[in-house]
């Protein structure tokens, strides 16, 4: 959570949802962060192909997902839970663990872990 708090502070999303993936090595150190998609004010389309492609390229063993909420409210939506579950299942098939999905509230600096909260 601390990593993504800093990431979003350094890379503001400018009133659009951005979905990013952090690729991690076997010791869960960040190898890279890749922007997967840029959406609209309140939506972002995410497909497993784009999420896991950077992890394959880096030879990652795990990923952490993150996206921002332009509203500043970090409460996960039904769609946030669905995409987390879908990507977690896809990761299991691919041998890449989805450790967490972090939501950042624009303008507030708040971050929320879907794994910890829900």
UniProtKB/TrEMBL annotation:
Keywords annotated in UniProt: Hydrolase, Metal-binding, Metalloprotease, Protease, Zinc
Gene3D superfamilies noted in UniProt: Cytidine Deaminase, domain 2
Pfam families with a match to the protein in the record: RadC (PF04002)
Organism superkingdom: Bacteria
InterPro entries given in the database record: MPN, RadC_JAB, UPF0758, UPF0758_CS
Coiled-coil stretches noted in the UniProt entry, renumbered to this chain: none
Start and end residues of each MPN domain: 1-118
Metal-binding as UniProt keyword: yes
Protein name from the UniProt record: MPN domain-containing protein
């Amino acid at each position: 959570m601390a990593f993504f708090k800093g990431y979003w502070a350094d890379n503001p999303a400018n009133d659009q949802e951005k979905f990013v993936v952090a690729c991690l090595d076997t010791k869960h150190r960040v190898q890279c962060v890749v922007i997967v998609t840029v959406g609209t004010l309140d939506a972002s389309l995410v497909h497993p192909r784009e999420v896991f492609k950077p992890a394959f390229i880096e030879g990652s063993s795990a990923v952490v997902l993150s996206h921002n909420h332009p509203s500043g409210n970090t409460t996960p939506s039904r769609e946030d839970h669905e995409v987390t579950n879908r990507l977690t299942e896809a990761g299991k098939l691919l041998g890449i663990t989805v450790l967490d999905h972090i939501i950042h509230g624009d303008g507030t600096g708040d971050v929320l872990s879907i794994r910890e909260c829900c």
